[in-house]
Amino acid sequence: MISGPRTNWLFCGIAVLATITGAALTPQTLQAQETASDGSAASSDESAAPTDAPDATAPQQIVVPSQSSGGQAFPPYPQPFFRGNQSPTGSTSVIPTSGFYFSTFRVLLYLGLIAFWVWASSWVNEDSDALKVRNGFWNLLMMAGGASGLLLALCLPSFFVAFLLVAVSSGTPLGLYIKERNDRVPENARVLTPDHIRAVTFRTLARLGIRLGGNDGPADFLGPDIQFLGKTSTGKVDTARTKSVENSRGYMAAKELVYDALIRRATDIHLEPSEDAMNVRMRIDGVMYPAEPFDRALGDAVINIFKVLSAMDITEKRRSLDGSFRAITEGREIDFRVATQGTRGGEKMSIRILDQSASVASIKDLGFRKALEDKLTQIVHQPHGMLLVCGPTGAGKSTTLYACLNAIDSYQHNIITIEDPVEYRMDRVTQIEINQKSGQTFASGLRSVLRQDPDVIMIGEIRDGETANIACQASNTGHMVFSTVHANDSITALYRMIDLGIEPFMFASSVSAILAQRLARRLCPKCKEAYRPKAEFLKQANLPADRIEKFYRPPKNPEQECPACGGLGYRGRVGVFEFLEINDRMRDMIRDKAALSQLKSEARKNGMLYMQEEGLRLVVKGTTSIEELLRVVK
Fold first, then answer.
1. What is the mean pLDDT of residues 339-347?
2. Helix (H), strand (E) at residue 536
3. CA distance linking residue 32 with residue 201, whole number of Å
4. In 3D, which of 462, 454, 448, 628 has the Cα closest to residue 551?
5. φ, ψ for residue 474 (rounded to 5)?
6. How far, in Å, CA of 234 to CA of 238, rounded?
7. Residue 210: what pLDDT?
8. Which letter, b or e, does each residue of 400-421 get, where b requires 16 or more Cβ atoms within 10 Å of its Cβ?
9. What's residue 518's pLDDT?
10. pLDDT tens figures, 521-551
11. Whether the predicted pLDDT of 512 surpasses 80
12. Collapsing DSSP states into helix, strand and coil, what is residue 355?
């Protein structure tokens, strides 16, 4: 492997020496040296014969003996003897003089080109190593381009042709690398695009104190391409808050932190104080990963930036606070839900990232098997009933409900949602955001929604008995209700709803189906590796050993980090589901408060597969690994 910076600097020294030599050995220089050597020979021959004293006022004549005529001299040289590549105009000195042997202009051009090549080689080495884009290959190609340029500079007699070819041979590898790396990075991270050139120009001029476009112009080009929008305590956009933090310490660090989280596909940012640092962790595909920490003073300043944007009291460090703000980047609107909590080490902050511009998936995109997809679609299109989605926080429950709403014709149905907060924006859907500070809760919002003639109601979460009872009443009065509840599996969700205070007969008549789900990380298709599973494990999992040839897993000993997943081995997530459809027999069992084992037995007779069984199908298909399945499904 070629070490870019060390080799490039060594090669730079050789190139500088060769450049100076090439710039010095011009045709005029060689002619002057040849004339000097002939003149010296003539002088030594004349000193052997007696001559008259030279006239002090006349120019010195250089007599060169002719080899063909046996000593006969050529006509005198009209100018005095001069060493160098440029003689003084009109010189009448009789004493031999010397001049400068280098063309200063040409040497400076070559040195500038060499300096650019060294900088470009170093940048290619660092950038390709960070992006994992064939680091060794591009280092070798950059060095080969510089070496070929050096040979051209030494061999070609025409300076301007040589300079042009040197620039082409050195710049071509750079252009090819930029094309490859721009194809692999997001549009906002590409270089030498019109937007990038414009942004660099504005940032450079802004650092010099030149602000183009007024006071608002350069701020958009300082740091990452992201613009914060503050919010008031009632959730309205407040641009004055953005202006108030733009010149604060930590503002640029806050922009870089959020931008880096978006690039890495993070869903949460955690700022955790320690004694002398502010540790940063990001949740990517459901797993926490550490990021570069801040020093404590800068970390506290970053937390204050987010608190001001979220209309939170920056003087309150002990009591828990919550708020939200918004950001715009690449034409996308992204909401951030902020919560703080006082700890022993200081104030901790967590930021949930909600991408408002993300397209709502369809049921087909969620990853259901065909039979399960057909059952869910049938439930969604019922005229009345209740569909519950259960799972822990971050299991994708809201995404599933949005996909269900997306399957309903919003032109012919009046769809109303009550959420905390609104995670996705949907056209032709009335979306209501809960505001606890103003006294608007799920229960009060649901009562008012029932007076708006709805066909479909989505409740973000059933948290208390009052909301649960109103939801069941709405289901029994001709409305289709979608909601979520925190439970480990579908059978447990039944008893969770009854524990909230709902009468069993009311719940049995209103519920149509319960969907439990988890999110497992997808294996990276670029770097996953196959292996033969053990026969004992296949036997325990009730899988046929003669039909299962291989499982997949992340690479154990990767040679280099995969550019697709950044060396994580996983990219994206897939749902693992457990679908419980309520039939008449199960309704009778719920009314009679049957035992949990009886309900499970009836569900199995009805064709329900447990979540772990559904997950094994994904393992066999190579979508995820067995280790990841066991991590999310116990």
1. 91
2. helix 535-540
3. 47
4. 628
5. -65, -40
6. 10
7. 67
8. bbbbbbbebebeeeebbbbbbe
9. 93
10. 999 988 899 998 888 888 887 788 778 888 9
11. yes
12. strand
Phi, psi values for residue 304, rounded to 5° = -65, -35
Please give the backbone phi and psi of residue 608, each rounded to the nearest 5 degrees, phi first.
-75, 135
Structure tokens at 462: 């059933």
Structure tokens at 612: 């772990």
In the numeric block, the tokens 């789900």 are attached to 517
Residue 592 CA to residue 454 CA, distance in Å, equals 32
Compute the mean pLDDT over every residue in the chain, rounded to the nearest whole number. 80
Rg, the chain, Cα only: 38
Run of H or E residues at 632: helix 626-632
Q: What's the token pair of residue 109?
A: 């051009």
What one-character DSSP code corresponds to residue 451? Answer: G
Closest to 492 in 3D by CA, of 597, 604, 616: 597
Q: Is residue 525 reached through a cis peptide bond, with omega within 30 degrees of 0 on the bond before it? A: no
Q: Among the ranges 56-70, 125-139, 185-199, which has the highest mean pLDDT value?
A: 125-139
Alpha-helix residue ranges (DSSP H) falling in 281-419? 296-309, 370-380, 397-406
Question: Residue 114: CB partners within 8 Å, gap ≥ 6?
Answer: 12, 15, 16, 19
3-state secondary structure 13-36: HHHHHHHHHHHHCCHHHHHHHHHH
The secondary structure of residue 59, as a DSSP letter, is: P
The angle formed by the CA atoms of residues 540, 550 and 632, to the nearest 5 degrees, is: 55
Task: Label residue 288 by pLDDT band (50, 70, 90).
Answer: very high
